[in-house]
Amino acid sequence: VSGLMEGKRGLIMGVANDRSIAWGIAKAAAEAGAELAFTYQGDSLKKRVDPLAEQLGAKLVLPCDVTDAASMDAVFETLEKEWGKLDFVVHAIAFADKAELKGRYVDTSLDNFLMSMNISCYSFTAIAQRAEKLMHDGGSMVTLTYYGAEKVMPHYNVMGVAKAALEASVRYMAEDLGKRNIRVNAISAGPIKTLAASGIGDFRYILKWNEYNAPMRRTVTIDEVGMSALYLLSDMGKAVTGEVHHVDGGYHVVGMKAEDAPDI
Ligand code: NAD
């Protein structure tokens, strides 16, 4: 993949630490020659993101809370001033109140519903509005989703509803922006132990379940998600848009595993 992303500049949103999916994608893009900018949410994450960004030679490390329109505006003003253009954006951001990532979906409060939808779905649209203006030579936008958008997963609750809306927004934006050669896709990653995932009830059980039931009989890594993202971000995925691409060891194709399947 060396040279694949040479001359391309991209914004990575959603690194919290070196276990973040966004970090796996950033490493893959940088290794392929991309120049990166990072955003971090709040001062407490700055000290984690700064050294990671430095590791990949990124000079622009900017604060951004997607609930604050002014902070999103400021990021894109800086990118316009420093770079003048943008080739790709990675949106790896989601949030819901931990208290409602267990128990029943039906008990979701309005406040948490609106907040989860805003941070986990609308923010990708808000970022796309701003990024589009800098994608003069076309571009690629990638967000992260999960199978809980398609099927009921225990404890995923309001996040499943937000991810379903996010996946629909990927299709609508693919149509809106396709004429300008801007592609919009999602990666549906299998469960990975990250900071965000630790908020989901019984997450360890979900990991084990995937290990036992995915065709590949294992979970996936942030580096593997990174490689697949590279395909969507680069010219390798030049004609791919509106897609929800599963990087989950095949978990989503299984209705029921054969009983005589060898144990892992
Ligand atoms: P993570 O905790 O490393 O990343 C989540 C990021 O969201 C953090 O960097 C956090 O700062 C950011 N964020 C939350 N609220 C924000 C706000 N208001 N403004 C700006 N940033 C905000 O966890 P992750 O698992 O790498 O999550 C990245 C994405 O991948 C999320 O969309 C998540 O739903 C998705 N995903 C995760 C898994 C998994 O099992 N870990 C599976 C499929 C999809």
UniProtKB/TrEMBL annotation:
<dbReference type="Pfam" id="PF13561">
    <property type="entry name" value="adh_short_C2"/>
</dbReference>
<feature type="binding site">
    <location>
        <begin position="65"/>
        <end position="66"/>
    </location>
    <ligand>
        <name>NAD(+)</name>
    </ligand>
</feature>
<feature type="binding site">
    <location>
        <position position="14"/>
    </location>
    <ligand>
        <name>NAD(+)</name>
    </ligand>
</feature>
<protein>
    <recommendedName>
        <fullName>Enoyl-[acyl-carrier-protein] reductase [NADH]</fullName>
        <ecNumber>1.3.1.9</ecNumber>
    </recommendedName>
</protein>
<feature type="active site" description="Proton acceptor">
    <location>
        <position position="146"/>
    </location>
</feature>
<feature type="binding site">
    <location>
        <position position="163"/>
    </location>
    <ligand>
        <name>NAD(+)</name>
    </ligand>
</feature>
<feature type="binding site">
    <location>
        <position position="96"/>
    </location>
    <ligand>
        <name>substrate</name>
    </ligand>
</feature>
<keyword id="KW-0276">Fatty acid metabolism</keyword>
<feature type="binding site">
    <location>
        <position position="41"/>
    </location>
    <ligand>
        <name>NAD(+)</name>
    </ligand>
</feature>
<keyword id="KW-0275">Fatty acid biosynthesis</keyword>
<comment type="similarity">
    <text>Belongs to the short-chain dehydrogenases/reductases (SDR) family. FabI subfamily.</text>
</comment>
<keyword id="KW-0443">Lipid metabolism</keyword>
<dbReference type="GO" id="GO:0006633">
    <property type="term" value="P:fatty acid biosynthetic process"/>
</dbReference>
<keyword id="KW-0520">NAD</keyword>
<dbReference type="InterPro" id="IPR036291">
    <property type="entry name" value="NAD(P)-bd_dom_sf"/>
</dbReference>
<dbReference type="InterPro" id="IPR014358">
    <property type="entry name" value="Enoyl-ACP_Rdtase_NADH"/>
</dbReference>
<feature type="active site" description="Proton acceptor">
    <location>
        <position position="156"/>
    </location>
</feature>
<feature type="binding site">
    <location>
        <begin position="20"/>
        <end position="21"/>
    </location>
    <ligand>
        <name>NAD(+)</name>
    </ligand>
</feature>
<feature type="binding site">
    <location>
        <begin position="192"/>
        <end position="196"/>
    </location>
    <ligand>
        <name>NAD(+)</name>
    </ligand>
</feature>
<keyword id="KW-0560">Oxidoreductase</keyword>
<comment type="pathway">
    <text>Lipid metabolism; fatty acid biosynthesis.</text>
</comment>
<dbReference type="InterPro" id="IPR002347">
    <property type="entry name" value="SDR_fam"/>
</dbReference>
<feature type="binding site">
    <location>
        <position position="93"/>
    </location>
    <ligand>
        <name>NAD(+)</name>
    </ligand>
</feature>
<dbReference type="GO" id="GO:0004318">
    <property type="term" value="F:enoyl-[acyl-carrier-protein] reductase (NADH) activity"/>
</dbReference>
<keyword id="KW-0444">Lipid biosynthesis</keyword>
